[in-house]
Design goal:
Elements: H1 3-21, H2 26-44, H3 50-64, H4 77-87, H5 92-111, E1 122-125, H6 132-143, E2 147-151, H7 159-162, H8 175-183, E3 189-193, H9 203-214, E4 222-223, E5 230-231, E6 237-242, H10 250-253, E7 257-260, H11 266-285, E8 292-294, H12 299-303, H13 313-333, E9 338-340, H14 345-348
Parallel strand pairs: 1-6, 1-7, 2-3, 3-6, 8-9
Antiparallel strand pairs: 4-5
Helix pairs in contact: 1-2, 1-3, 2-3, 4-5, 4-6, 11-13
């Protein structure tokens, strides 16, 4: 056997071992075994071609699919509430909805309930910067689940979600299956981010895939065009975000529980800045908590530099700049701390 054939046979043996270790369904296993046998024959006959690449790549993805593997939920309601409050100010309706869900799961587990209880599929609707996306990360942390984020902004084809046929050269699974493969579990929190921002020409097809993902009657057998076999996603938690619902299909809205994210008031933004944003920025920059002090009368200017702003992104960027400037002054001048006052605010705050 030539060195090249030996290398190919080693690759096939590795695929065989991975396939044997995988907990894929028996019907899929028969398909994979058949393809591996065909690969071995092609190597024996010396007919290596692009089909070998396609088939070996497909098998490599199939064995990566977490057909049964799941993380175990942490159902400590008190801990979940602490995590939500640690990362988010307000948002009580969203927090309450998932604390209720965790409570029901805990009770059912204690009672040994056998029937499945599906997580609510929530659609968080609100203006930019109101905390929609970051809540998904907090939810994953609270439940001890992995997180898969799928950005929909500018998505131009349903193939990005569902994949392409493996017969096409260069084809791969869609973002849903890729995401669970990367996380290694079939029950992550799946963040469908900005589902209202898909390309107009692809809106109808993408919404069709979303219906299949969100419908409990269908998502237990989600079929990716590349994998070409049903994958059970019914244990995943789907959390979607949107700025508005104008371009979201009615069929998708019907399968989700909509929660409107209110705009932050100036007072709420100041509280968020003091309690969450500034302490994190100081820690990231290497400054101690008492090394940058912002006087109370400066906060309204930081919060509303350009008129009303529903979210906190501008506020965050403003504070990032102020912290950087303070760090430089402390290093260059040797000052023990820096105060931002009405008199020196122009040094630290952007000029619009």
């Amino acid at each position: 056997m030539s060195d090249f054939k030996q290398i190919l046979q080693q690759e096939i043996d590795e695929l065989k071992a991975k396939a044997q270790a995988s907990k894929m369904p028996e019907e899929m296993r028969r398909k994979v075994d058949k393809e591996i046998l065909a690969l071995e024959r092609s190597v024996e006959l010396g007919s290596y071609d692009e089909k070998y690449e396609k088939v070996s790549k497909w098998i490599d993805w199939v064995v990566r699919v977490p057909w049964e593997k799941e993380t175990e939920d942490n159902l400590d309601v008190k801990r979940a509430a602490e995590i939500f409050n640690k990362h988010h100010y307000g948002m009580q309706e969203v927090k309450d909805r998932f604390l209720e869900y965790i409570s029901v799961l805990k009770l059912r587990k204690q009672q040994g309930a056998e029937s499945e209880f599906r997580a609510p599929s929530l659609l968080l609707v609100g203006l930019v910067g109101t905390g929609k996306t970051t809540f998904a990360y907090s939810l994953a942390e609270a439940l001890n689940r992995k997180l898969v984020r799928i950005p929909f902004g500018g998505m131009g084809s349903a193939k990005e979600l569902r994949g392409e046929s493996r017969l096409i050269l260069g084809a791969e699974p869609g973002r849903v299956i890729k995401g669970i493969c990367e996380m290694g579990v079939r029950n992550p929190v799946i963040l469908l981010d900005e589902i209202d921002r898909v390309a107009k020409e692809a809106n109808r097809d993408i919404m069709g895939v979303l219906v299949e993902l969100l419908d409990p009657a269908q998502n237990h057998a989600f079929r990716d065009n590349y994998i070409d076999y049903p994958v059970n996603l019914s244990h995943a938690i789907f959390l979607a975000t949107a700025n508005n619902t104008r371009d979201i299909a009615t069929a998708v809205l019907d399968r989700m529980e909509k929660i409107s994210m209110p705009s932050y008031t100036d007072h709420e933004k100041i509280m968020i800045a003091k309690k969450y944003i500034l302490p994190r920025l100081l820690k990231e920059s290497g400054l101690r908590e008492n090394q940058l002090i912002i006087q109370d009368e400066v906060w309204p200017i930081i919060t509303r530099p350009l008129g009303f702003d529903a979210g906190i992104r501008t506020l965050q960027r403003t504070l990032e700049g102020a912290v950087r400037k303070a760090a430089r002054i402390i290093v260059e001048k040797g000052y023990p701390e820096v105060y931002i006052t009405m008199e020196n605010k122009d040094i630290f705050l952007p000029r619009y």
